[in-house]
Amino acid sequence: MAPVAVVAAIALCFVAIANGSTRAQTSGQAYEGGDINLGGRDWSAGERQGTQGTASDRETSQLEFNVRVGVATDYIYRGTTLSAHKPAVDAAVEASFAQLYAGIAMASVNLPTQPAAEITMSGGVRQTIGNIVGATYFLYPGEITGPGVNGIDYWEAAIRADKKISESIRVAGGFAYSPNVSNTGAWGW
Prior knowledge:
- The protein is mainly β.
- The chain has one domain (2-183).
- The protein is 9% helix and 38% strand.
- The chain is built from one helix and eleven strands, in the order αβββββββββββ.
- It has one helix spanning 2-18; strands at residues 23-24, 35-36, 63-72, 76-77, 80-81, 88-97, 100-107, 118-126, 132-139, 154-164, 170-177.
- Strands 3-6-7-8-9-10-11 form a seven-stranded antiparallel beta sheet.
- The longest helix is centred in the N-terminal third of the chain and has 17 residues, at 2-18.
- The protein starts with a helix and ends in a 12-residue tail after the last strand.
- The model is unreliable at 4-9, 11-36 and 42-58 (pLDDT under 50).
């Protein structure tokens, strides 16, 4: 339970720093700057609203930071609960400069190997129209594994196109690949 308290404290600090509202992302909802996608699995923030404007509005040489926090009733990733059907918290920071971005997110998890948290590190290139090419590394520190058994850390590469056509129409598609998902020896796409 201590990792959840640590992540919650960090999340509250980020809320105080960001001085903004936080809400959990609902199914099918695109990231629009105020929502959170646990574990940073949103392939980074394609477009931002509010005082920052969209990616096409900002100067190409301006360094920007995006801080977000959230709480979910169940952290489900690709159909599997990573929080044992219990609440989870997440905090993330992303820096972007021109078309480059790098970010780190920490989410509470409840897995059989008992990691302290899920730490997601990501980086890549984002075009102003929303095309994203990036890589993500998923780290599970403090796991308890048996002799000769590796942890579940792994990396994934992704490409995504996301375009807002009008106020009510958005088109998005993507592809992600990992040669060793959760360090099981199985590839995934």
